[in-house]
Amino acid sequence: MYFTLPKEYREATADDMRERIRAAKKRLGKKLLILTHHYQRVEVVEFGDHLGDSYGLSKIAAAQKEAEIIVFCGVHFMAESADILTGAHQMVYLPNPLAGCPMADMAEMADVLAAWEYLGEIVDTKKIMPISYMNTAAGLKAFTGRNGGLICTSSNADAALKWAFQQREKVFFFPDQHLGYNTGKKMGLSPEEMVIWDFSRESGGLTKEQIEKAKVILWKGHCHVHTNFTAEQVREVREKYPDVKVIVHPECPPEVVDLADASGSTAFIVKYCEEAPPGSTIAIGTEINLINRMALTYPDKTIFELSGQTCPVCANMYRTTLHDVAYTLEHYQDIKPIHVPEPTRSEALLALEKMLEII
Ligand code: 13P
Ligand code: SF4
Known about the structure:
Elements: H1 7-10, H2 14-28, E1 32-37, H3 42-45, E2 50-52, H4 54-63, E3 69-73, H5 76-85, E4 91-93, H6 102-105, H7 109-122, E5 128-133, H8 138-146, E6 150-152, H9 157-167, E7 170-174, H10 177-186, E8 194-197, H11 208-213, E9 216-219, H12 231-240, E10 245-248, H13 254-259, E11 262-263, H14 266-275, E12 281-285, H15 288-297, E13 302-305, H16 315-318, H17 322-331, H18 344-358
Helix pairs in contact: 2-17, 4-5, 8-18
The structure holds 1,3-dihydroxyacetonephosphate and iron/sulfur cluster.
Iron/sulfur cluster binds at residues 75, 101-103, 135, 223, 225, 251, 287, 314, 316-317.
């Protein structure tokens, strides 16, 4: 897909865009709701009505009945989820339509269906609970809903896994292997009980016996932003700053999460920074825009990025600019909203509502 803003917007100054966003917000009043994810640029966050992690924002979208125009400053799967959770009179717009999530793209519908079918040849799929991470396309959320499963985010993966094991013997978790593994480990599952389904290999690269013995079958997906963090970086930072607290997102590899002081969703990380006493030193393993905002917000604390060198930017989150937001607010009537058609919408809604219900 090719997308470019009209010249008038591309060449406008940031101050001009700010002024026009302010004017549009005033004009649209309660009809408009701007949601911003924690990884958005600081100048975009400034205009959000709500700032949050993917769970928090989906809850807000679900509870919001008044707004007819929802501008979701985040990535595609988040806007799709908001569309699923809101009413037919509410239109959801993604200010930069190119903002996707490479991890979500690692689970393709045809591959997931083929995996499910193969698993069904070995174990009755009625004994397997599908759990789809929020970072998936709507079609996969629908697959999950159809098969009795639920959606999870990084803030509720443990509750989702616990719920799943109360109903069924095994869990099929996709697409983030690290979130799934880290959560399973926290619950006391052993490495042998968690196997990785490699979608690039025949039969997922697993033997029949491995599948039979497994409690959790993890899709071999990952986030390229979070897998840049290493255990070595944690050791180095501890050596350099003996009082440091290392806080990471659970999309980081297990050896990083194991060595960290705490791990959790973006909202968890923000809360941790907020509640840490003045003078604290905090090294964070997540996206750089969140970290920079925390460092700016809490100048009385030393907050910095864990790797110290790789600049973990999520290029997709970074795509959304003030210019995109201004253009969306001024031209929403001409922009195609994010729309999940039936029956995908209703089936995906089952899985999303289950998450909101049990957690
Ligand atoms: P949160 O649910 O923690 O906001 O994370 C979303 C995400 O994409 C992390 O990379
Ligand atoms: Fe996707 Fe990773 Fe970006 Fe999150 S940080 S939106 S998982 S690519």
